[in-house]
Amino acid sequence: MYVGTYTNGQSEGIYQLQFDTDTGELSDLRLVATIENPSFIAYSPNKKYLYATDEGNSTVSSFKIEDNGMLKFINTVKSFGGAPCHISINQKGNKAVVSNYVGGNMALYDINEDGSLNQASQVFNHNTPEQKSHAHSAQFINNELFVADLGRNAMYLYEKGGNNNYKLKDSSIIKMTENAGPRHFTLTKDGKFIYVINEYASTVTASKKVGNKFELINHFSTLSTDYKGNNACADIHLSNDERFLYGSNRGENSIAVFKRDIETGVLEKIQNMPVHGDWPRNFTLDPTGKFLLVANKKSSNISIFNIDTSSGKLSFLYDIKVPNPVCLLF
């Protein structure tokens, strides 16, 4: 497992850990690439290359994954916007999309066969004179590109044209509540349901695809009923069988666990599990789907939880110290 970090503390870049999928044990922490603020990292589909954003310098870097797990630097390109906070790669491995939080735009890149990044081929600016954009995440799904814009409080949809370029199809595919702040999102494997976690509203917005449109199912709170403090949601993931949904709360410092009706897409909250740390910016499920790992930024630890695959509920196993972790990648 690779770990992206913020380097304004003890961290020096991207780290690697070994993970035992039988016991859930993390071990052998080591620095594999020295880079400033690799706050989000992503694989190529064949897992031969790794890509990282650098929020401090507004750049994106590519690395070749060596046989021993070390990362060999390939090249760096500009993100064309301030504070790039998310990167994802398309299924073919020849396109990358970077979301620039401060820049309020997202940039598209062609990826060469050697894993290197070309300069941005397209940059989409969501800012208007009336409203500041904060593009926070984007994902390629077949020939479409979904973008969560926290500042504009909207989910954008772009479509690939015949010239391999993308064009805007819809600037508001889901009806959000006022000032919800969509941050990250996940889709079911068949693309029929989308779940958006909202940083400001502390909710998950669920929608179902009907024809060429997404129809709202509902908004579901991520917080315990008795929690009264400040909160900012961060990350969201479906279980491997898509029967459960998980979201992270920064403030309540918990993982919200939802049971999901696979037919209707409706969510029912069944647990708020403390993360045993502070500020869970990102989390992931291991490849087996038996464990959930949480990157706690402010407390500099990764917490490991067992997943009851029948109920979806979490139970805390242990935690390990890692400097300023903010992104986990298996």
From TrEMBL:
Family from the record: Belongs to the cycloisomerase 2 family.
Entry keyword annotation includes Protein biosynthesis: no
Protein name from the UniProt record: Lactonase family protein
Listed InterPro entries: Cycloisomerase_2 (IPR050282), Haem_d1_sf (IPR011048), Lactonase_7-beta_prop (IPR019405), WD40/YVTN_repeat-like_dom_sf (IPR015943)
Pfam families per UniProt: Lactonase (PF10282)
Taxonomic lineage: Bacteria, Pseudomonadati, Bacteroidota, Flavobacteriia, Flavobacteriales
Record keywords, A-Z: Carbohydrate metabolism, Glucose metabolism
TM ranges: none
